[in-house]
Inverse folding.
């Protein structure tokens, strides 16, 4: 009888004991995996920085947003965009590609007819001012900042100097990075100098040409397919 | 159906060609979709029969091409485990990591009629996923830049020589702070399984992109 009682007491004590607490193993996630222990390789050089600040600073950012490909449902817009991109491709090609090759390949004796903006130097002068008149032109024709336009310098603009002299001074200015985004072409058969540049720098470049080279009369800004859009 | 080893028909090279071509398209598209570069530098092209955005900026294109040219030998020898496109904020801390995990079978069971067209279909699906991934990702802070990381199956220093293919394009071992991301959100995008390569693409996204990562 007493044994039974002892058993009951023992059982009761056991029942009243705290449940053993199982220590949970530390959770080790599968991620990151063991392979991540090795640090990866990466190129030492950083990728190029292509700033979009001209679009943002200009106050025409909404117009810039028009060229955003995320608006995929508008067919007309797509066409505009494609045209714009083509222009950009051509301009980049002019700056970095064909222009440079031609620049190198021209023999010394041959009269140079192309000049390409060098990216080696920083632009120190202020280039971002626009007149109200030029703003209106940009709005009227829906021009994009990266769209290429061309200033045409005629022989009459150069008087009393010769157009060859103006060309050599222009070539020097472009090579010394004083005319951003510019590449120029001397159309000797037409006796004209064509100065290509981005719309963003157009007005600055127009003033630079007029003032530094003491051009007389009006110089004309032409845009592909639109023709003459502005005179200075 | 034929069973080939990796040495037969120089299959490693074929796989590397296919993958590097795909990665080039994918990197361009990621940079466009995640707005690392201004949209003005991108142009619409067609690849794998779907529209993609490719940069037309020569310096950027050259950079991507050089990077992949160096990665190719590692993929060819099945030594690259992951290729990661890391988007970093102004302080060079990662905000997003597009991880391409690559696995190649040691034995290649191929049938010529299904091989390339099937792979192309699968790669197309991955590209389509990248093109819509902005819907599941938060906006990145302004001024982001990118880098490409290559995780090797063995220690990176062992593979350093293999990756130094171009003289003027040196490679280094990445810093830990460029690699580690605290409490990332994992967003699986796509997996693909073909006869020649298996790949899974996922994004690791920093929880609070606007704030500095406490690494």
């Amino acid at each position: 009888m007493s044994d039974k009682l002892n058993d009951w007491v023992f059982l009761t004590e056991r029942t009243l004991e705290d449940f053993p607490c199982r220590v949970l193993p530390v959770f080790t996630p599968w991620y990151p995996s063991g392979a991540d222990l090795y640090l990866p390789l990466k190129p030492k050089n950083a990728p190029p920085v292509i700033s979009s600040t001209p679009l943002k600073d200009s106050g025409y950012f909404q117009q810039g947003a028009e060229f955003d490909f995320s608006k995929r449902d508008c067919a007309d817009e797509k066409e505009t965009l494609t045209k714009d991109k083509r222009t950009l491709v051509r301009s980049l090609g002019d700056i970095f590609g064909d222009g440079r090759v031609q620049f190198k390949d021209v023999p010394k004796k041959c009269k140079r007819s192309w000049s390409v903006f060098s990216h080696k130097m920083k632009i120190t002068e202020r280039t971002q001012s626009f007149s109200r008149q030029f703003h209106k032109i940009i709005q009227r024709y829906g021009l994009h900042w990266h769209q290429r336009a061309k200033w045409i310098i005629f022989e009459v603009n150069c008087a009393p100097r010769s157009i060859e002299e103006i060309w050599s001074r222009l070539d020097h200015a472009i090579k010394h990075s004083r005319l951003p985004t510019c590449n120029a072409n001397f159309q000797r058969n037409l006796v004209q100098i064509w100065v290509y540049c981005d719309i963003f720098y157009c007005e600055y470049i127009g003033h630079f040409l007029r003032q530094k080279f003491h051009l007389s009369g009006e110089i004309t800004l032409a845009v592909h397919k639109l023709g003459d859009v502005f005179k200075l | 159906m034929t069973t080939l080893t990796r040495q037969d028909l120089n299959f490693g090279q074929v796989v590397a060609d296919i993958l590097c071509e795909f990665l080039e398209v994918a990197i361009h598209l990621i940079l466009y979709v995640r707005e690392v570069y201004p949209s003005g530098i991108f142009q619409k092209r067609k690849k794998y029969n779907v529209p993609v955005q490719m940069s037309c900026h020569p310096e950027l294109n050259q950079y991507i091409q050089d990077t992949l040219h160096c990665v190719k030998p590692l993929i060819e020898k099945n030594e690259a485990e992951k290729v990661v496109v890391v988007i970093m904020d102004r302080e060079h801390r990662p905000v997003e990591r597009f991880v391409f995990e690559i696995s190649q079978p040691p034995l290649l069971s191929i049938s010529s009629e299904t091989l390339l067209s099937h792979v192309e279909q699968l790669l197309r699906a991955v590209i389509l996923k990248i093109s819509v991934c902005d819907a599941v990702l938060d906006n990145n802070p302004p001024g982001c830049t990118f880098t490409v990381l290559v995780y090797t199956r063995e220690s990176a220093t062992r593979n350093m020589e293999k990756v130094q293919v171009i003289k003027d394009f040196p490679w280094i071992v990445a810093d830990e702070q460029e690699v580690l991301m605290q409490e990332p959100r994992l967003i699986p995008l796509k997996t693909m399984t073909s006869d020649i390569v298996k790949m899974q693409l996922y994004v690791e996204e920093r929880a609070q992109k606007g704030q500095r990562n406490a690494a």
Notes: DSSP finds eight helices and seven strands in chain A. The longest helix of chain A spans residues 75-105. The two ends of chain A are 122 Å apart (CA to CA).
